[in-house]
Specification:
single chain; alpha+beta; elongated; membrane; 171 residues; 5 strands; three-stranded antiparallel β-sheet; Alpha-Beta Plaits; two-stranded antiparallel ribbon
Length: 171
């Protein structure tokens, strides 16, 4: 008898609590500032792909959902021939974004990735590449790292410092 009265009391008490139900999709949920959602590939300020196909993102991925193949254009600039992410395996850990030296791969707050077919969750480079620069405006990896142009090596162009040998920095 006591347990029935207690259950009725609890039910009556919860009737007056504030509701936590979000009427999705009419009402969008509020996401935390550091929410990690859909992965995108960004472009540099010149409008070219930031990705240099270094494979660090694929190596850092704990579930092996990233696959890419590197190639070079006529001036020696590296880019991915194909870049593929299988979102059905991705756990949105953000290790790929942390490993990327060029800020090419970034996680956005977009969380609406539902599909009826599992094959549709495999995104190719055309689906991942956006027109904007993402979070890091004005960053161009090749301006920072330099690259070989017109038969001149790194550090041989006018107003360019020679590259640093990192082995000299060791104690």
């Amino acid at each position: 008898m006591f347990s029935i009265l207690r259950s009725i009391w609890l039910t009556l008490l919860h009737t007056f609590y504030r509701r936590f139900t979000v009427q999705y999709p009419e009402e969008k949920p509020k996401l935390p500032a550091r929410y990690r959602g859909r992965i995108v590939l960004t472009r540099d300020p010149d409008g070219q792909e930031r990705c240099v196909a270094c494979n660090l993102c694929a190596a850092a991925c704990p579930v092996d959902c990233i696959a890419l193949e590197a190639t070079e254009d006529e001036i020696g600039r590296r880019y991915p021939k194909f870049f593929r992410i299988n979102f059905s395996r991705c756990i949105f850990c953000g290790y790929c974004e942390d490993a990327c030296p060029t800020y090419a791969i970034q996680l956005t707050p977009d969380f609406e990735l539902a599909e009826y077919e599992r094959q549709n969750l495999v995104y190719e480079k055309e689906h991942l590449l956006i027109d904007g620069q993402g979070k890091y405006h004005g960053y161009n990896f090749y301006r920072v790292a330099g690259y070989t142009v017109g038969g001149k090596g790194k550090g041989e162009a006018q107003h360019e410092d020679p590259p640093i040998d990192i082995r000299d920095l060791n104690p």
